[in-house]
Amino acid sequence: MKGLATWLAVALAAGLPGLVSGERLAKRDSSSTVTLTVNPSGGNASSPLLYGIMFEDMDHSGDGGIHGQLLQNNGFQGDNPGLTAYESIGDVTIAQDMDHPVSDAIHSSLQVAVNANATGFVGFANTGYDGVPVMKTTYLCEFWMLGNYSGNITLQLVGSSSGKVYASHNMTVVSSEEFTNHQTTFNSSASSDGNNEWRLLFDSALVPNGTLNFGLVQLFPPTFNTRSNGLREDVATFVDDIKPSFLRFPGGNNLEGLQIDTRWQWNLTIGPVVDRPGRESDWFYPNTDALGLDEYLWWCEDMNMEPVLAVWDGKSYGGILSGTDLQPYVDDILNELEYLLGPSNSTYGSLRAQNGRKDPWPVNYIEIGNEDDLTGGCDTYPDRFTQIYDAINGSYPNITLIASTITESCLPSDPPAGVVYDYHYYREPDALVAMFNLWDNQPRSQPVMVGEYGCRNTSATDGVFWSSILCSCSEAVHMIGLERNSDVVRMAAYAPLLQHFGYTSWSPTLFGFDSSPDSLTPGTSYYVQQMFSANRGTTILPVDTDADFGPVYWVASKNNTAYIVKLANYGAEKKTVHVNVPNTTTGVLERLSGSEYATNQPHEIKVRPNSKTVTSSQGNYTIHMDPWGVAVLSVTSGATALHFSLGAIIAWQICIFLPQLL
Ligand SMILES: *[C@@H]1O[C@H](CO)[C@@H](O)[C@H](O)[C@H]1NC(C)=O
Ligand SMILES: *[C@@H]1O[C@H](CO)[C@@H](O)[C@H](O)[C@H]1NC(C)=O
Ligand SMILES: *[C@@H]1O[C@H](CO)[C@@H](O)[C@H](O)[C@H]1NC(C)=O
Ligand SMILES: *[C@@H]1O[C@H](CO)[C@@H](O)[C@H](O)[C@H]1NC(C)=O
Ligand SMILES: *[C@@H]1O[C@H](CO)[C@@H](O)[C@H](O)[C@H]1NC(C)=O
Ligand SMILES: *[C@@H]1O[C@H](CO)[C@@H](O)[C@H](O)[C@H]1NC(C)=O
Ligand SMILES: *[C@@H]1O[C@H](CO)[C@@H](O)[C@H](O)[C@H]1NC(C)=O
Ligand SMILES: *[C@@H]1O[C@H](CO)[C@@H](O)[C@H](O)[C@H]1NC(C)=O
Ligand SMILES: *[C@@H]1O[C@H](CO)[C@@H](O)[C@H](O)[C@H]1NC(C)=O
Ligand SMILES: *[C@@H]1O[C@H](CO)[C@@H](O)[C@H](O)[C@H]1NC(C)=O
Ligand SMILES: *[C@@H]1O[C@H](CO)[C@@H](O)[C@H](O)[C@H]1NC(C)=O
Ligand SMILES: *[C@@H]1O[C@H](CO)[C@@H](O)[C@H](O)[C@H]1NC(C)=O
Which residue ranges does the record assign to the Alpha-L-arabinofuranosidase C-terminal domain (predicted)? Predict the structure, then answer.
């Protein structure tokens, strides 16, 4: 309801006619050229955190996604794990064994019973998340083992259908009637597809008619920044290329829990992975929580992102706690903050040091819950918010606290100064464009975080699976609106970030991949995020023009080396935009375009941005905007022109070696 009211308010403020179904908003300014003059002085400061990312484990974005561990169901977590992803190899019988827990947290192991007629090497396979990515690289493998065995164990990476062996590695193991940990590394050659499995084999002759148990099997390719229990290097690099400046985590819905007991609990996601029980998530599959609280913070540190940590605030989908019932959970938030921020000789701070991080984590932003205007949270949120706000603010007055809604009726009547308000929206392209000026009249004393947004073209005939140029252009228009208001819109994140193809429960996402090589596929919206985020001004500049916004939208900014003009043409006609940036001569123009419904499909990247050097003797640049086109012009500001023309020459040399798409 709030969304509709906002849309109407915006539509009225913009003087828009009622939309006829199928009519595009674009037909407002029919002239084919737009002239813009950037005024280098004046303007408002832009939030340095504006473009960031939001992450929660959904669409197997964490386990089976950005987290490096490749084997599925390794801890038998969740409500009904069964033998998912396991297969027997040779004459053995495999079973989930709850009588032999690996630890207090990992309640089951895999029992491998050797049949009387078994010969040679036998064991089991794990087929990963719809296959195991097999690359020419070095893998780290770790497992726990119980049972009487002294001899070789062979670890392999094998084509599931082809039987082709890409890696085969022997390790000598001495195992007893207690679980012990075994680790090794091995090299592999590359598979041409993702239809592969990992195998653990042992000599059946050494286990006549007996059983062996294996627990918490783990397989890692190289990790980002070579962190142990880290992120996949290839996937994380793809995120890093967006140059995000904050990470909102761990949810999203996945913070809340389908029930109170299955909420995300910080203290169950820290320490050795063998001590993390995992949970049935809000997205109907188990989370191992191997990507836990500290791993999120290493991720932030490695990508130079500001952590935006959400804490559980009493709302789950199966029940809501408030008042005195909530107090133990508020106390637990303070434990969590001592873990993150306390000195290494405090109770929880010492636990952090023991887990590998001596210095406190730099946590400056905390969000209280998730979407408390929804799923029954509204009535009690004013009280729950105040209770948690007072507790955190009392101990950590410097932390900026974020309310999980902007809906007034769900907030305290007189909220404390300095609170940031989080608002989420997923809209069809026209509706997102209609929200261009959503924040123009936002009171400057009430800053905003757009913690989730994105175009979802639910009326597209081919479904919402993957972003199209139309959607990506509408996002660019909307982001221009966010940037114009980035004195008050502090942070914004497209969501969701990524998916493992085949495990999609919500789409589109910025990018996706599967177990096959080179499967990382950016959606068209990925490029819009990258173009906008990689080109950031510190000051939003006034622009002089006779033109009205629509179909062409723009925002200009500067930082200490460049002027930046971002443009989007939300219309079916080509447009010519003359941009004047006084006293500049050289720049780079990056453009993204394609037909209205052009998409990048899994494994099929058809749309990419292209970039070229532009020059002008008087600071006048002519930019041809394709229908639904998005462009970023960055020109070198006078003082360092010499400096930057060198960069331009290098950029030019790169350009001539790239196939020109336009
Ligand atoms: C600066 O912010 C004010 C609102 O506080 C707005 O009216 C003005 O247009 C902004 N200037 C620029 C250049 O964005
Ligand atoms: C070995 O015995 C199992 C039953 O214990 C049977 O299912 C399997 O077919 C036998 N394998 C061979 C090669 O005879
Ligand atoms: C165990 O593996 C090693 C290394 O591959 C090999 O040299 C050795 O012969 C194997 N041992 C047995 C008993 O097969
Ligand atoms: C591994 O050990 C097995 C027997 O233990 C042997 O047959 C095989 O050749 C060894 N493989 C390698 C690569 O050493
Ligand atoms: C372990 O297995 C070996 C041979 O497989 C056997 O000789 C030995 O008795 C077993 N030890 C125990 C404690 O079961
Ligand atoms: C294998 O073990 C089962 C029970 O554990 C027993 O009934 C059977 O006789 C054994 N078979 C052999 C060949 O030792
Ligand atoms: C986690 O925190 C809760 C709440 O304080 C506590 O009851 C529980 O014992 C803790 N669990 C572990 C494993 O530390
Ligand atoms: C922690 O160390 C600081 C100085 O390093 C000291 O002042 C403080 O008393 C210690 N706190 C505890 C709980 O030991
Ligand atoms: C808050 O920030 C100020 C200024 O940076 C600093 O002096 C003060 O110690 C901080 N207070 C706390 C509780 O961290
Ligand atoms: C300034 O803008 C240029 C052009 O977009 C960009 O390459 C550079 O990284 C920006 N500088 C800073 C400090 O953000
Ligand atoms: C352009 O440069 C000239 C000479 O340095 C200067 O006088 C003029 O003010 C500049 N114009 C703008 C708009 O900055
Ligand atoms: C450059 O742009 C300015 C301002 O838009 C205009 O006055 C001037 O005539 C232009 N110069 C050229 C060569 O187009």
Answer: 451-629
